[in-house]
Amino acid sequence: MLENYIEPKNVIWVFGTSYCGSSMFGLMMSNHPDSVTIGDACKLGQEILHNECLACKSQVGDCILYSPDMKRENIYNHIYNVLGYNNIVDSSREQNWYQSLINKGVPDKHNITPIFLYKDPVRYAASYVKHWTVQTNNLSKKESMNAAYDTFHRRISKIFTINIEPVPLVRYVDLVEYPDEILRQVAFLSGFPYKEHMEDFWNNDHHHFINGNPGIRNILRNNLTTKLKVDNFYKEIFSDKEIEEILENEKVSEILEGMVSNFGNSIEWYSELI
Ligand SMILES: [Zn+2]
Q1: Which residue ranges form the domains of the chain, and what is each CATH number?
Q2: What is the 210 CA–ligand 1 centroid distance (Å)?
Q3: Long-range contacts for 194-202 (Cβ within 8 Å, ≥24 apart)?
Q4: What is the whole-number distance in angstroms between the Cα of residue 50 and the centre of ligand 1?
């Protein structure tokens, strides 16, 4: 056996847009004694501010996971060597990150299962407006909606170009409504271990969680619990006319058509797109 030989690990790659539930999914899927997520693995080492690792709050030299000489193509071996879990969820979502790992031959070394977490355009635009108009007041509602069309189109078009198959599609609303069923299916596809109540992601306490959703980080840091609930706040944000406008937008329509041609089988598996 080669000195540095490490058995291939099961790795789930999460593709998706912002607000697609990737933090929650990663924590659910790795809510098992032999699984782990570190959130946005692509940002390991980038979340260093004033010499402090923002994920574990330790000084750079003391952070258990970050090592300046770590090579990105060895990231999953590195996580295994440091933390010891055989099943790793990487919820980076960034197509460029995964493409660089593909270019470096990472899929040949591990059992990679790519998952596409999909948030429909109306809920996506509502999340966008909530953040940029309601919370930070940086953009008008109209500007937020236009920016949402652009990012929705840009991010998902990039996912269409991934040179790796197959990509099971998981809708955000299905993940929240039927988490147990989704987690079982993904465990079956990926080789990840499954146990009951993995959806109670707040019980996942062995992570070094990088980046991700601020609300979820707050739950983890303060040992809170929550109730899974589909966000329907788009109904408060958009009129019927605005919803129609979103669905008829040229960029959104192009993506919806692309979804059918790229992921048709997965879509049949998980009902409709909107
Ligand atoms: Zn750290």
Answers
A1: 10-269 (3.40.50.300)
A2: 8
A3: 194/32, 195/31, 195/32, 197/31, 198/28, 198/29, 198/31, 198/32, 199/28, 199/31, 199/228, 200/31, 200/225, 201/24, 201/27, 201/28, 201/31, 202/27, 202/226
A4: 13
